[in-house]
Each structure stands twice: as C-alpha cells, then as structure tokens.
C-alpha cells in the first residue's frame, strides 16, 4: 500500500515550458547584475563550487568571471549542475517575492496533493532544482503556498536522479519500506533508477512526453491510491 508520494517537479507537477521559457530567461537576464555581487557569501560559495567542479571535470583552474561564464553556458545547456541549481534558486528568489514569477502547476496538481495529504499520505519532492528553489516554486505557486503539504524536499545533494543509490538514500531518510513509496516523474531513466531501489513508479505523460514501459498517467487525477 502506498504511504508516501515522492514527486519530481519539471514535467510532472510543472510544465517544462515554465522552467525553460520563464525561469531560465529570468536567470540569464539577471546574471550580469549578480556578477557585480560575487563577494556576497552565498554567491561566492557557488563560484567556488563551480571552480571545483570545472577543476574536477576538466583539470582547469578558472577565475570568478570564468565561473560565471560556465554558469551561463550550463544554464543555456540545461545542465543539472549543483552550483548552477543553487545560484538559480538565489537569483529567482526576488522574482518570486515581488510577484513577478509564480510557480506553475498543472491544473489538478494542488487539489490532488491536498486530497492525498488529507487521506493520510505523506508527500515529498525530489528535483534537480535546489531545495531552496523547490520551496520558492511551491511557496509562491499559482495555487498559493503549498509548502506545508510536504514532509521532505530532496535535491541532488542526495544523489543524481538517474542513480538508484539516490532513491535508497531518500528511502532511508523517509524511513518507510521502499514499496510504500510511489515516485512520479516524466523521465523513464529516473523511474528505472527508483524501481531498481524498490520504489513504485508512475510515469507522468504530460503533453509532449512519450509513453514508456512504466505505468503512465496523463495527470495526477488518474493516479488511484487505495
Ligand atoms: C524547482 S527549480 C526549477 C526547475 C529546475 O531548475 C530543474 O532543474 C527541475 O528539474 P526536475 O528534476 O524537477 O525535472
Ligand atoms: Mg522532470
């Protein structure tokens, strides 16, 4: 019996277009201003993390300006790199707080999440977006503040989404048997990794997503929890 629903964000609760056509352009537009703020501790930490990642991956030592160039290029390439995701969360914060951006949700998502919670299920999020960015999206969503619904938020600090060890780490953090956790995502490789860790899986087939070997659902209303 399912006791916990763990959901992906982009392509599952939220359209890919919101991320690619609203969030990423806002980040890229604001990035030149943040180059001027590279001494802020939270920005400096992500520059240093970018420098460490480039050194590890390419054996190259880069300065802070070059780190910003990498972050810009990674955003344009939709690379799910930890320092980029952390900086995006920092940059997006102002736009959520001043109402310029509201987190997109597919129409049935908020009500389904509330119904599941009322039925006694626990809810969690696992996304490549940073935990801070996840809380902004659900805290300032089109359906209001949904953050009280969630017991846990996981990002790639727990591991990458296509690796089964990440789901084992999540299962241990949640403290329920793996078969009582249902993971929802639009990406079959993520579902395969979750299944390998013993989780149940559901493939969200939002417009533009192709079916796979995993049980598919056009939207959250189709997911029956007994
Ligand atoms: C919650 S932050 C906005 C989405 C984002 O940047 C991202 O990388 C989402 O990836 P997901 O793992 O939710 O498909
Ligand atoms: Mg996704």
TrEMBL record:
Enzyme class: hydrolase
Keyword rRNA-binding found: no
Catalytic activity from the UniProt record: 5-methylsulfanyl-2,3-dioxopentyl phosphate + H2O = 1,2-dihydroxy-5-(methylsulfanyl)pent-1-en-3-one + phosphate
A UniProt-annotated Pfam family: Hydrolase
GO molecular function, one term: 2,3-diketo-5-methylthiopentyl-1-phosphate enolase activity
Free-text cofactor note: Binds 1 Mg(2+) ion per subunit.
Cross-referenced Gene3D superfamilies: 1.10.720.60, HAD superfamily/HAD-like
UniProt keywords, alphabetically: Amino-acid biosynthesis, Hydrolase, Magnesium, Metal-binding, Methionine biosynthesis
Quaternary structure and interacting proteins, as annotated: Monomer.
Domain of life per record: Bacteria
Enzyme Commission number(s) from the entry: 3.1.3.77
InterPro entries given in the database record: Enolase-ppase_E1 (IPR023943), HAD-like_sf (IPR036412), HAD-SF_hydro_IA (IPR006439), HAD_sf (IPR023214)
Cofactor list: Mg(2+)
Protein name, UniProt field: Enolase-phosphatase E1
UniProt similarity note: Belongs to the HAD-like hydrolase superfamily. MasA/MtnC family.
A Gene Ontology biological process term: L-methionine salvage from methylthioadenosine
SUPFAM superfamilies: HAD-like
Species per Swiss-Prot/TrEMBL record: Saprospira grandis (strain Lewin)
Pathway(s) per entry: Amino-acid biosynthesis; L-methionine biosynthesis via salvage pathway; L-methionine from S-methyl-5-thio-alpha-D-ribose 1-phosphate: step 3/6; Amino-acid biosynthesis; L-methionine biosynthesis via salvage pathway; L-methionine from S-methyl-5-thio-alpha-D-ribose 1-phosphate: step 4/6
Stated role: Bifunctional enzyme that catalyzes the enolization of 2,3-diketo-5-methylthiopentyl-1-phosphate (DK-MTP-1-P) into the intermediate 2-hydroxy-3-keto-5-methylthiopentenyl-1-phosphate (HK-MTPenyl-1-P), which is then dephosphorylated to form the acireductone 1,2-dihydroxy-3-keto-5-methylthiopentene (DHK-MTPene).
Keyword Hydrolase: yes
